[in-house]
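Render this sequence as a predicted structure.
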Amino acid sequence: MTPPSEPPASGPARSALPFEVGSDPVAAPLAAFRDWIETRALPFQAQAVRDPAGGFHERIAPDGHPVAMPRRARVAARQLYAFSRLAGLGLGDTVGPGLAGHARDMLLGAHIRPDGRIVPLAGGPEGYDLYDIAFCLFALAAAPEAVLPRAGACALAAQILTRLETGWRHPEMGFEEAMPRRLPLRSNPHMHLFEASLEWLATGPCDPRFEALADEIAGLCLARFLDPATGALRELFDGDWRIAAGAENAVEPGHQYEWGWLLLRWGALRGRAEARRAGLGLIDLAEARGLNADGLAASLLDPALAMADPTARLWPQTERIKAWALRARLATRRADAALPEAKAVEACQGLMRFFQHPLRGSWWENLAEGGAPRREPARTSSLYHIVGAYHELAALEARRSLPVAKEETRASSTA
């Protein structure tokens, strides 16, 4: 079914945004964000993205038609996370549980074997991809009991983790890209494995190896992923975890925000001041160097941190929201939270510009500098980023409602 259309957007203006910031700077953007998810995005997912034959269409063209392409494990996993998270936030009562179950059936039926082996492409052979493994572990952690019994999810995650640790460990820290070795090594899959480990720690006890894995990846990031010359988080490495040379090893502002968010979470959880400092530094670097002329998080910087591609992709805007919202939430005094709150709201305003799309509930993936959208299919996988941003903004608003006397305790116990 083709979803309803709206007038086409080109160069969406800030004045068209559906909220004004008032005395509570977070409440209005959060309400607008929630309304868009509930009245637009979820119906769009149910009508246009869900495939009755199984799984979800990976991309939807601007005219509403699905783009034929293989179904990937990482997308089924991201969808399971997204619909599970929204259900936990009280969104999508009519369609959310059904969509989460649909994602579960696809993930377990087509992509995860009972013994923990992963099938990256539906209908294809089993294979190893650290990115897919990370998202499968992440989705299993996020799925609620009503969708996937916790004991079964934990047992399956333990099987996946055992296979990962016995088959693809790097001799020093982290994991290989392939066996036999394929270079360069990448920080990005480790970032998502870090996120999956933290999700297991947040959702309750399962396997003590997740705590050790989170600590290991945090240590790898602090020791090897950060460029000592610039402070930036780097993407590509040689076999000894040394930063790979070359202009193709660009700096991604979105990943500065995302790693900053993860390091703040882990630092708060483990009481590690050096992780907090590094996380704050990455967020500040992205904010200082990574915004384009429209105030949106850009795609790429060169290794010296000069702007290389000012195009704004959707997902870095969500990571900017998450980073600043958590930074505000971890502030121990309301006065210290004011600037991070304002930045989170500004980032939310930026994200809303991507939602001004001719298909109700869809989004643009890229906006050129100046605001003109690139007319291309929307990626189903982006919902994971959108939901993560909403979740962090909702957590910030809940934090703001606490009495002032309780703030310091709350900030130190949540991440």
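Summary. Residues 27-49 form the longest helix (23 residues). The domain at 19-413 is CATH 1.50.10.10 (Glycosyltransferase).
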